[in-house]
Specification:
This protein is mostly helical. It contains eight helices and no strands.
């Protein structure tokens, strides 16, 4: 096997690892949303376990990337692919943290149940799950058009969050029971985690554009993503 063939095999292994990590984070968020809907602490604990595995995989992939850079001295295009992966795994790990953040609010809401119902929250959850799934698909298929479309969906997520924020503020202002106010605030925290998850999914999509085209791309350059 030639040096180039060995290198290409390693790059394909990296691609498979990113797909695995993306699938794990998607599973983690879906489980967190299910746990929140059911207020199920057992499911929430499963979220925490998946997050540990996501973190471990991130560091494993990072080691693979460093090894490739040091041992193979990749050319510009190959180096760009490796750098894109190193950025993606950071974003994916953080997305796992956001999913874990959703699960973390469950004990607080259980203690002081909120009577607030919002269809936007369900829509928001579905939207960010789709963004992650599509961003990973764009990566595995080098699909720049899909990557740009994913990044553009972040506007919809931001709009849903703005609507949720307004409803929650109004609800809290009308609620005299401080315990109810605290529980409602936890719902807002969960929505904020989803909004941030969408930002990070857009980041992954932007990395795909960079990897394929060599052009740094920001869907919303005026935004200061935290």
């Amino acid at each position: 096997m030639s040096v180039r063939e060995r290198f290409d095999r390693k790059l394909n292994e990296l691609r498979s690892d990113i797909l695995k990590m993306g699938n794990m984070v998607e599973e983690e968020l879906k489980l967190a949303l299910k746990a929140l809907h059911a207020l199920d602490t057992n499911l929430a604990n499963q979220v925490f376990e998946i997050d540990k595995a996501v973190n471990a995989l991130r560091f494993s992939i990072e080691e693979e990337c460093f090894e490739l850079i040091v041992t193979q001295q990749p050319a510009a295009r190959d180096l760009r692919a490796i750098v894109a992966v190193m950025n993606m795994i950071v974003d994916l790990e953080r997305m796992g943290d956001q999913a874990k953040g959703v699960a973390k609010v469950i004990p607080h809401i259980l203690q002081y149940p909120s009577d607030l119902q919002m269809v936007e929250f369900k829509e928001m959850g579905e939207a960010v799950v789709a963004m992650l799934h599509q961003s990973i698909t764009a990566y595995t298929s080098n699909n720049v058009d899909l990557a740009r479309a994913v990044a553009a969906q972040d506007d919809k997520v931001d709009a849903l969050y703005a609507s949720i924020f307004t409803q929650i503020m109004q609800h809290m202002a009308q609620t005299k029971d401080l315990e109810k106010v605290e529980a409602t605030y936890e719902v807002l925290r969960a929505a904020r985690e989803l909004e941030r998850f969408g930002d990070l999914a857009a980041n992954v999509a932007e990395r795909v554009v960079y990897m394929v085209t060599g052009q740094l791309y920001e869907a919303k350059p005026s935004d200061k993503k935290k």
